[in-house]
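Dear colleague,

Following up on Tuesday's group meeting, I ran the structure prediction for the two-component complex that the binding team flagged. I've pasted the input sequences exactly as they went in, so you can double-check that nothing got truncated or mislabelled along the way. The structure tokens for the whole assembly follow below. Feel free to forward this to whoever is handling the docking comparison.

Inputs:
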Amino acid sequence: MLFLNKHTISKIGRNIIQTAVEDAYKLVLNAGYNMPDRMHVPDKNNTLLLMPCFSKDFFVTKLVTVFPEAPRHDQPAVNGMLVLCDNVCGKPLAIMDGAALTAQRTGAVGGLAVKFLTAQSIKTAGIFGAGVQGLSQARYLLFNRKIKTIYISDLKKESAIKMSQILKAQFNSVEFIVSENPNQLVKNCQVIIAATTSRKPLFKADKNLIKGKTFISIGSFQPDMQEFPDTIIANADNIFVDTMFAVKESGDIAIPIKDNVITEDKIKEFAKILKDRIDPENKTTLFKSVGMALFDLSAASAVYKLALENNLGQKLDF
Amino acid sequence: MLFLNKHTISKIGRNIIQTAVEDAYKLVLNAGYNMPDRMHVPDKNNTLLLMPCFSKDFFVTKLVTVFPEAPRHDQPAVNGMLVLCDNVCGKPLAIMDGAALTAQRTGAVGGLAVKFLTAQSIKTAGIFGAGVQGLSQARYLLFNRKIKTIYISDLKKESAIKMSQILKAQFNSVEFIVSENPNQLVKNCQVIIAATTSRKPLFKADKNLIKGKTFISIGSFQPDMQEFPDTIIANADNIFVDTMFAVKESGDIAIPIKDNVITEDKIKEFAKILKDRIDPENKTTLFKSVGMALFDLSAASAVYKLALENNLGQKLDF
């Protein structure tokens, strides 16, 4: 059995993870998986999420803990652990840092949206949210497109500055600009990615501001959270979700449906794009992700195979 | 973070584990825990069980996989993994071999039944089932009582012989007898422990055969499984269960209730014995265990503390 920590998982190539997430979408197309609803286990103010998923060869259980008070003790609010087993005998194969794997696969979910929903030629991008997910989104964005300028916005300006410095050290030829004006950011950028915990739309928009742009929402994982204004979903040429659960789980879809801004039949599963590509040129597009254990399963399987081939991780004396 | 494998957990002293399980019963008395129902996740013919439990300081999630076809590939049908976290910040503390911990804590559940429900003076014992659990029951029995002779019965005589040899090597002064006559075994013994997967009672009994003896049922974890004949529950002076879930989960309780052999109000929670001891002398007693995640939590917490103090296990570079 193997243990793969944060450091090892963070260093796995983005090509490996993005291919794995694309493979997950292929499993969606041919229904080659079994993913029960995630389980929410409450205890005091905390939550334990249990996310199992099975494919033909493997299965995972991701455990995520959400402890809102942990930052008071200088600990992260969210921890995660993932157990990968073979799905022939149920034998445990690997234990992985769940937070690091989640950051990687969520970056790749955004990366695939960039790959299939933006023009090859785009040069400008904006990112709302300078946390772990925002950073991962930036890296996968740059893996997929030759962006010249990235605008970064965060409620805490220091966080945006820090993220721009980290990225500058890694991507020297890209210009990083800390933005304090959300509307200016949207105006300047061809693709806008939000990875925040915002409960209200991050900017106000009229039709002209958003036209021809691609909007990717990674935050808003609850029905009362919304990152983008209704104008976008109301005027988008295409609306995609990573899983149809997004319709009930995220306010970015649930709120405009409830308010009769759009109807549910306009929402398409992103996996379908693998069969029926769209021409993203001059199109207004919205992509909303809430994530699913299938991404973890596919990414963890790929990481495990790579670890075996390259002798990565710590061997556990099982 | 620590990894504690089968070998390390099997060597933990029985005093440590039995005290931990007794502590779990104390938590039952003062309602000092939160244990959601275990979750059954089916996939093909296999089952994943997720068993979370929270106390003030710690929480565990035990993952158990049941793959009935695995023995065809020379793999065990049941695998387990336990994740221990702190319950203040949700931080993962240790990963433990779930099967080894389950065997230890289940042994201790039987051990405590022996401690509180049999006379100090007993000298003879019988064990049905020579698997992992039967072996652990024998060890905890001998931890609690100075038994002179143990009768061992199993459908596979070789298994009973092997178990008697393993135990003889460890407990040289005890006599081990392989029994092929279940009724003779019951007749000869003062305490009878069953740890089998039997669906039908293991022996036929009249009132005289069972009088004054203690019966401990560890198997029969489903409503259609039964280890002991109804005569015992019908004539017992005391009937205890480790958790009231046993009433619906085990056929040893559910079947006689359904058949109006007894009424549910005769069933008592074992934890109460910590406050109100009984005099087991000349009493006919039935104890039925189905186990619960609270035992895992309490045992895993104790093992973790001991591991820290004694530098046990493998350190994970988290």
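Residues 2-101+294-315 of chain B form a domain with the ornithine cyclodeaminase, domain 1 fold (CATH 3.30.1780.10).

Cheers,
M.
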